[in-house]
UniProtKB/TrEMBL annotation:
Gene: atpF
Keywords: ATP synthesis, Cell membrane, CF(0), Coiled coil, Hydrogen ion transport, Ion transport, Membrane, Transmembrane, Transmembrane helix, Transport
Descriptive protein name: ATP synthase subunit b
Lineage, opening ranks: Bacteria, Pseudomonadati, Pseudomonadota, Betaproteobacteria, Burkholderiales
Gene3D superfamilies: F1F0 ATP synthase subunit B, membrane domain
InterPro entries the record matches: ATP_synth_B-like_membr_sf (IPR028987), ATP_synth_b/b'su_bac/chlpt (IPR002146), ATP_synth_F0_bsu_bac (IPR005864), ATP_synthase_B_chain (IPR050059)
Transmembrane segments: 6-26
SUPFAM superfamilies given in the database record: F1F0 ATP synthase subunit B, membrane domain
Entry-linked Pfam families: ATP-synt_B
Function: Component of the F(0) channel, it forms part of the peripheral stalk, linking F(1) to F(0). The b'-subunit is a diverged and duplicated form of b found in plants and photosynthetic bacteria.
Subunit text: F-type ATPases have 2 components, F(1) - the catalytic core - and F(0) - the membrane proton channel. F(1) has five subunits: alpha(3), beta(3), gamma(1), delta(1), epsilon(1). F(0) has four main subunits: a(1), b(2) and c(10-14). The alpha and beta chains form an alternating ring which encloses part of the gamma chain. F(1) is attached to F(0) by a central stalk formed by the gamma and epsilon chains, while a peripheral stalk is formed by the delta and b chains. F-type ATPases have 2 components, F(1) - the catalytic core - and F(0) - the membrane proton channel. F(1) has five subunits: alpha(3), beta(3), gamma(1), delta(1), epsilon(1). F(0) has three main subunits: a(1), b(2) and c(10-14). The alpha and beta chains form an alternating ring which encloses part of the gamma chain. F(1) is attached to F(0) by a central stalk formed by the gamma and epsilon chains, while a peripheral stalk is formed by the delta and b chains.
Coiled-coil annotated spans: 102-130
Length: 156
């Protein structure tokens, strides 16, 4: 065989193979590569979008945390004020109750003292009557001298 003919046939087979490859194999391969590039680009865009969303969410989280801390400190301060108010109210109520108990005790003591004076007057009057009976050695009429004893009680 002739080298020129062999070279010519090889060239025809090569061009035929190249044409078949470019016509039937190359387009699906290019489509697959383009689809892959598009997926990669979409993935990178989604990753960038996710990073931005993460940054925004982080900032929002920090803002929410700061607001929660401020609210918590406000609640604690209000609680402390309320506790102090409750303690002050309890002290005031205790003082009022103590004053009331003291006044009641004073009134009871005054009543008891008055009762003791009355009993003492009665005992003094009875002793005076007994003393007068013994001095006079006669029986004293208690009903007749009741007014005199009442006068004596009033003077005591």
């Amino acid at each position: 065989m002739n080298i020129n003919a062999s070279l010519f046939v090889q060239m025809v087979v090569f061009f035929l193979g190249a044409w078949v490859t470019m016509k039937y194999i190359w387009p699906p391969l290019i489509r697959a590569i383009e689809e892959r590039q598009k997926k990669i680009a979409d993935g990178l865009a989604a990753a960038n979008k996710g990073e931005k969303a993460l940054a925004v969410a982080t900032e929002q989280g920090k803002a929410i945390e700061a607001a929660a801390r401020a609210r918590a400190s406000t609640i604690v301060a209000d609680g402390e004020k309320r506790a102090q108010s409750i303690v002050d109210d309890a002290k005031a109520q205790a003082q009022i109750e103590a004053d009331r108990i003291i006044e009641a005790a004073k009134a009871e003591a005054a009543t008891e003292m008055q009762r003791a004076r009355e009993q003492l007057r009665d005992q003094v009057a009875a002793l005076a009557v007994q003393g007068a009976e013994q001095i006079l050695v006669r029986e004293v009429d208690e009903s007749a001298h009741a007014t005199m004893l009442d006068q004596l009680k009033a003077k005591l």
